C-alpha cells in the first residue's frame, strides 16, 4: 500500500466513515396523509467521532437514528455504516444501541444483563466473565455486579445498558436520549463517564438529545435539526478538544458553543411560536 492511502484493516473497512447518510428521506404514510419525517439528510460521522443530533420533538432525530440502526428503512437516499449497507452492519453487530429506557431484563443480575450480547455471540463462559468484569469496571459498577435491576438507581441502570451496548466492542454506539429520564446531577456525571468511555474505546457515537449543554459537552459536532419537514439546518463544530473534564462546564468556550447551538435552534423556536 502506498503512502497516503487509507489503511484498510482485515475486513477492509477501517478507513470508511462510521456513518454515511446521503440525501436520505423518510416518509410515513398515516391516515391523515403523509408525514415527511426526514428530507435531504446528508451526514457523515468519522470513525471515533462523537456527533449529537439535537432539535425540537418531531424533527426526526429518532427516525434518523433508527435508519442508521436498520430498525426502519429509508424512503429515499443511501446509508452506509463502515462502508456497508445498514442491514449488513446490523448483522455484523457493528454498533451497540442504548435508549432512554435502559431495557434491562429484571430477572437477570447486572453481570448477566451485560453478558447477554456475549452469550448470543457464543462467547465461552470464562471469556464472558472476564469481559463482564472489564465492562463493569469501565462503567463503575464492579460492586453491583450481583445486583438485580430493581436494586439499582436509574443512573446505574443506564450504566448497565451502556456496558451491555459496549459488550462486543462495537466501533459505533447509537444512543437515543439515554440520559433523558435522569436527574440533572446524575446526568452530568454520566455525561462525563460517557465522554471518557468513548475516548477510551475509540468508538464513534451518534447521540440524540434535547439538551443543548449535554450536546455541547459531549460532541465533536452538534447537528441541529428542524421539523416539518425534518431536516438538518446547521452543523456546529465544538472544537473543545478531547478532554471533557468537569472544568469544561465553566469554560468560556463551552458557553460560546452553547450559545451558538441555542442560536441555531432559535429559528426553529420562532417558527413554532408563530404557529401558535
Ligand atoms: N412509525 C411512525 N408512523 C408515523 N409517523 C411517525 C412514525 N415515527 C415517527 N413519525 C413522525 O415522524 C416525525 C419525526 O419523528 P421522530 O423521529 O420520532 O422525532 P424526534 O425523535 O426528533 O422527536 C414526527 O412527526 C413523528 O410523528
Ligand atoms: Mg425521539
From TrEMBL:
Key words, A-Z: ATP-binding, Hydrolase, Nucleotide-binding, Transport
SMART domains membership: AAA
EC number per UniProt: 3.6.3.-
Domain ABC transporter intervals: 19-252
GO terms, molecular function: ATP binding; ATP hydrolysis activity
Database matches in InterPro entries: AAA+_ATPase, ABC_transporter-like_ATP-bd, ABC_transporter-like_CS, ABC_transporter_ATP-bind, P-loop_NTPase
Pfam families assigned to the protein according to its UniProt record, in alphabetical order: ABC_tran
Entry protein name: Bicarbonate transport ATP-binding protein CmpC
Source taxonomy: Bacteria, Bacillati, Actinomycetota, Actinomycetes, Micrococcales
